[in-house]
Write a structure and sequence with these properties.
12% helix, 412 residues, 4 helices, mainly beta
């Protein structure tokens, strides 16, 4: 063996297709070690006797590792010659990093394989960690929180209803559209159905139960789409102390995502609010919202192990509500300020099985400050049925959500 030297470098190659191009990042490693394989005077003609100038080309988009090298071939008379060489003629194609480490036909002459593999993995991890900030599973956090807040607002309307001694059934049909402009840019839309029932126990205690279902689609800037279905169940209550009230809500949610990746996620949350009602139908309210996205782990369509950690969100809210009675219509308005007291970073890890590469990324997808505002019109008929139409807006930096809904109540 002679002249050991390993050079590691990264470059970008451009591939052109019909006047458009895609950029594929390539990590390259060069090993100029000369490996003696056989004595040319003791092997048949055509036998490889030496190898040198080994190049490793690792495509980070396709995870293909191609290897090219220079070979010396025995000429059958004790001499040797250099085999015809082209940098695009690969000795090995579509090799994995595990192949180099475990396959004797590849590994036996690479004395520095461990060093090469370590360097390739390090560079690959840095690249993938940046790419993960655009990964699709980050929508799980935004989607879950958005639906959670939407459901809270629909139930919150029940707390403003006047006392009624009998059971009330209610249902809403909604359409939500929201957009996020940071990291993994996407737009999302969903149709939802929310049904519930509640009853006043005596004059000052309201108890209720509801279920919501949302069926939606998320579209990314590369025009890929991911479908989702989200289920939530809620228990809620309100207790009145004359003009002061305390409300409480518990939520459990389950969601399924498919198309790009197929996986499931679940969450639970709670909301506590305290408010003061004035004779002028103005309500001042403050409270806390807590949501926990449980950890998720799954294998994607090509076998990579993907996981993201449990996320905790604790949000303080404060705002005003006002009702204007214009018989037979009542107009309700609200405005809330939101601030995230506790906000875990969204974190995701991917393990590329065939290549022994771990990559991870962490970032905040929402700004801690936000606002909510809503406007609804409601009318009540003599048969105990109430009908309302509502629009609400939720906004933060690089994020805005719009919801329109139609709601019907029936009092027995």
């Amino acid at each position: 063996m002679k002249n050991t030297n390993i050079i590691l470098f990264t470059f970008i190659t451009l591939y052109f297709y019909n006047s458009a191009y895609a950029i594929n990042p390539i990590i390259s490693a060069y090993n100029d070690t000369v490996y003696s394989l056989a004595d040319p005077g003791h092997v048949p003609a055509g036998t490889a006797t030496m190898q040198s100038d080994t190049y490793f080309f690792y495509n980070l988009e396709t995870l293909d590792l191609d290897i090219t090298l220079t070979e010396w071939i025995a000429d059958g008379s004790g001499g040797e010659y250099i085999a015809p060489y082209s940098p695009t003629t690969f000795k090995y194609k579509n090799v994995t990093l595990k192949d180099i480490a475990t396959n004797p036909s590849i590994n036996y002459f690479y004395w520095e394989a461990d060093y090469i593999l370590e360097s390739l993995r390090k560079q690959a991890k840095e690249y993938f960690s940046e790419k993960l900030k655009e990964n699709y599973v980050f929508t799980t956090s935004a989607k879950t929180r958005n639906i959670f807040y939407s459901n809270i607002n629909q139930i919150d309307n029940r707390f403003q209803e006047p006392y009624h001694s009998n059971l009330t059934l209610w249902a809403t049909e909604s359409y939500n559209w929201f957009k996020q402009n940071s990291y993994s840019d996407f737009t999302s839309s969903a149709f939802g159905l929310h049904i519930g029932m509640d009853k006043h126990i005596k004059n000052n205690l309201l108890l209720g139960f509801s279920y919501s279902f949302s069926d939606g689609e998320t579209t990314y800037k590369n025009n890929l789409t991911q479908d989702d279905s989200i289920h939530n169940i809620h228990l809620y209550s309100m207790y009145n102390f004359n003009n002061v009230y305390l409300s409480l809500l518990f939520n459990y949610g389950f969601s399924q995502y498919k198309n790009i990746d197929n996986f499931s996620a679940s969450n639970f949350g709670t909301v506590i609010n305290m408010g003061y009602k004035t004779p002028q139908n103005i309500i001042a309210e403050t409270g806390l919202r807590y949501l926990n996205l449980l950890p998720v782990s799954y294998n994607d369509s090509i076998g990579n192990e993907i996981s993201f950690d449990s996320n905790h969100f604790l949000t303080w809210t404060t705002g005003l509500k006002h009702t204007i009675n214009l018989t037979p219509i009542s107009i309700k308005m609200k405005f809330n300020i939101l601030y995230d007291i506790l906000y875990d970073n969204d974190e995701i890890t991917i393990y590329y099985n065939a290549h022994d590469i771990f990559a991870n990324a962490s970032f905040k997808s929402w700004d801690p400050f936000g606002i909510e505002t809503g406007l609804s019109a409601q009318t009540t008929f003599n048969n105990g049925i109430s009908l309302s139409i509502e629009y609400s807006l939720s906004a933060r930096q690089n994020f805005h959500s719009h919801t329109g809904l139609i709601k019907i109540d029936y009092k027995f």
